[in-house]
Amino acid sequence: MVIIRWLFIMSCMLIASACGRLGPDYIERSRGSYIDVIAQTDREELLANLVRLRHSEAPVFVQIDSITASPDLSFRLGGEATIDSDVISTGKLTPSVTYTEQPTIVFKPLLGREFSRELLLPINPMPIFILLQNGWSIDTVLLALTRSINGIRNYDQQFVQTPTFVRQYTRFTNAVAALGNLHRAGFISIGTEGTGDQPDALFLLIDQAAHTETDWKKATEVFELDQGATTIRLAPGLKGDPNTLAVATRPLMGTMRYLSSFIEEDSLDPAILNREVHDTLGFTVKTSDVFPESAIVAVEHRGVWFSIEATDMRSKEIFMMLRVLFNLQAQQSSASSGVALTLPVR
Questions:
Q1: For 279, phi and psi rounded to 5 degrees?
Q2: 206 near 183, Cβ under 8 Å?
Q3: Are strands 286-288 and 295-301 parallel, antiparallel or unpaired?
Q4: What is the pLDDT of residues 189-243, one digit of tens each?
Q5: What distances in angstroms separate CA 310 from CA 268, 296, 304, 337, one per listed residue?
Q6: Quick one: which of 251, 250, 273, 249 has its CA closest to 260?
Q7: Residue 39's CB: how many other CB atoms inside 10 A?
Q8: Model confidence, pTM
């Protein structure tokens, strides 16, 4: 009887110890897994939508609204005893512990007003400032996010690709690339006027030493800027002046369509973008017939694998910028579609 009592006490101590570690152990084991899966599926969803746009198919976004996971620890205590002449001669206790996890995931499709706010309305200048302040260069941001600067048009699928237009968006690309070279060399910095979430204006601050640079002369010639300017205002609009870059921004959908033009696939007509423009931006989505083992993200569409290589730092940088921009647009959209899909996972 004493032995059984001792086994019972030991079993209770083991179970209590397990309960005491359940919370920390659950976080240690589960948090990283959720983060990894969410990050990977976000990348796959974004690349899949670029591929859909390349095939002239509508994009579909389903956001994870919330994840609620409930870990549960249950235990049972069984026993056996052999009785001989009304005396317990042998006994055995069999404790068992069962751990289960029941996550509930709420998905929210991007529909209605949220869809239009986040994808279809032109991007305001604030995300441009945020991206520039967080390490993306001027050329990366302006090539992807703008339709025109000071009336000079960037590449856009809606326009007929006449030789005149091709020359214009090629000039645009080269001029913006020149600004990017100056930015990376430290000749251009970014400033704001006003405070708060929405500054009154954005400015490019031009170092005097930039005035002798070939890149500065190229940019000022194309965008008709004052070559001696030390401050250039960056403002929304179609036509600027010698001290202003009037920027007509794309919607996020337009930025995605622009980037989808860099996807080349044998089964589709070649991208309209010429090779010079493609190489200037440097965004590449590769295609293959088999799963690409060296890719950071890969999706299959119509029997073809599309991927971004893990070693392609330029494409990864632009792809990450697109995801950050999507999050910025989502943050600014306060409307709710009122539609959610709740999936309890067993």
A1: -70, -30
A2: no
A3: unpaired
A4: 988 776 555 656 788 999 999 999 999 999 999 999 999 999 999 888 888 889 9
A5: 25, 5, 19, 36
A6: 273
A7: 12
A8: 0.76
pLDDT of the residue at 24: 67
The b/e string for 147-173 (b: 16+ C-beta within 10 A; e otherwise) is bbbbebbbbbeeeeeeeeebebbbbbb
The secondary structure of 227-244 as a DSSP string is TT-SEEEEEESS---TTE
Give the span between the Cα atoms of 288 and 307, in whole angstroms.
8
CA distance to 91, 107, 238, 323, per residue, from 85 (Å): 15, 65, 102, 77
Per-residue model confidence as pLDDT tens digits over 153-192: 998 877 777 888 888 999 999 999 999 999 999 999 988 7
31 contacts: CB under 8 Å, gap ≥ 6: none
Cβ atoms of residues 246 and 237 within 8 Å:
yes
Say if strands 295-301 and 201-206 run parallel, antiparallel, or are unpaired. Answer: unpaired
User: What are the start-end ranges of the H helices in the chain?
Assistant: 2-54, 112-115, 125-133, 138-145, 163-184, 214-223, 252-260, 275-281, 313-332
> Helix, strand or coil for residue 201?
strand
Q: Give 120: exposed, middle or buried? Use CB within 10 Å, 0-12, 13-18, 19+.
A: exposed
- Size of the chain, expressed as the number of residues it contains: 346
Rounded to 5°, angle at Cα 21 from 15 and 26: 120
Q: Which tens digit of pLDDT belongs to each residue from 98-143?
A: 666 677 777 777 776 777 777 888 888 788 888 988 889 999 999 9
